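Worked example 3 (structure in, sequence out).
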């Protein structure tokens, strides 16, 4: 199994210039934002001497290129700066929020698969039939609904009226299955139309394949045929789609965390913007970008483990 990951070192090397480019973007964005970092740190009542001393200490009086290399040097030493809002190092703030976002994203993907696989199978079992038209209708409606609106529509009856699920709560262990259900379902509904379309099309193609006909002639049928031959082969193209859309889910979680008042990366970003917390803004943007890069690499790994032909091709590349 591990020999299929021969391409991984080269894939990691390819990620280095992407990370380098990400640091440039993050640093540049901080320079484009309005406001003075020194004023934000010391307050508007600070005297000019104190402001100038802080600018010298932070290197803000130097040319932008020197400031960038100072920023890179601090990153390499694990120094993300101090949060102006929390009055503590950013590296101590992020670990409290990151697990919330990661849990939400993973939960959303699981729910999206639980929605997509049955519906795609239902549609592919009889293309253009009544059931297939119903599934395709769901994908059109779900894709057209804004995530924020879906979140509110789920929250009003299930959380506020019937009080089946909490809002703004994140605990430990299995209790988060209930705490994160509504925000994860909101993201899952947004992801499911694309997955359903991909799986449905792949399943229709696999149903007509020769190896499926051979399996049927040998007596295979029902769920065993579906799991061992149809789903296993149809899911491969969907892996790449999940990987690509995971990046959108990470971005979408910023909005959803705000809607459901979850203490994740999204909340940190919004609070940092509102409070002009430049170090925290930089750190959150960098973490989200790194998450997208890691997701891309993990997608390649999963695809290679599922399909050896892909691993061989990428190793030669």
């Amino acid at each position: 199994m591990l020999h299929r990951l021969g391409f991984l070192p080269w894939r990691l090397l390819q990620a280095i210039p992407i990370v380098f480019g990400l640091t440039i973007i993050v640093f540049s964005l901080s320079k484009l934002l309005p406001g003075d970092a020194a004023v934000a740190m010391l307050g508007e009542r600070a005297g000019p001497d104190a402001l100038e001393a802080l600018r010298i200490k932070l290197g803000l009086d130097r040319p932008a290129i020197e400031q960038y290399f100072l920023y890179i040097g601090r990153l390499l030493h694990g120094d993300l700066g101090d949060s102006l809002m929390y009055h503590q190092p950013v590296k101590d703030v992020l670990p409290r929020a990151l697990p919330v976002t990661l849990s939400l994203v993973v939960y959303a993907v699981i729910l999206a698969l639980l929605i997509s696989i049955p519906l795609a199978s239902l549609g592919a079992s009889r293309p253009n039939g009544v059931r297939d038209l119903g599934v395709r209708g769901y994908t059109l409606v779900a894709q057209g609904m804004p995530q924020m609106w879906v979140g509110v529509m789920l929250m009003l009856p299930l959380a506020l009226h019937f009080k089946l699920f909490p809002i703004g709560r994140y605990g430990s262990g299995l209790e988060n299955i209930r705490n994160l259900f509504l925000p994860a379902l909101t993201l899952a509904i947004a992801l499911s139309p694309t997955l359903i379309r991909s799986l449905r099309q792949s399943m229709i193609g696999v149903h007509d394949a020769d190896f499926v006909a051979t399996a049927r002639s040998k007596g295979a049928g029902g769920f065993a045929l579906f799991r061992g031959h149809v789903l296993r082969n149809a899911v491969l193209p969907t892996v790449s789609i999940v990987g690509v859309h995971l990046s959108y889910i990470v971005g979408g979680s910023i909005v959803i965390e705000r809607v459901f008042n979850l203490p994740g990366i999204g909340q940190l970003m919004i609070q940092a913007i509102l409070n002009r917390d430049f170090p925290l803004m930089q750190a959150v943007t960098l973490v989200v970008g790194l998450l997208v890069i890691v997701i891309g690499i993990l997608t390649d790994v999963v695809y290679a483990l599922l399909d050896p032909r892909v691993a061989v091709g990428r190793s030669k590349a």
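Notes: Strands lie at 82-83, 88-89. The first strand starts at residue 82 and ends at 83.
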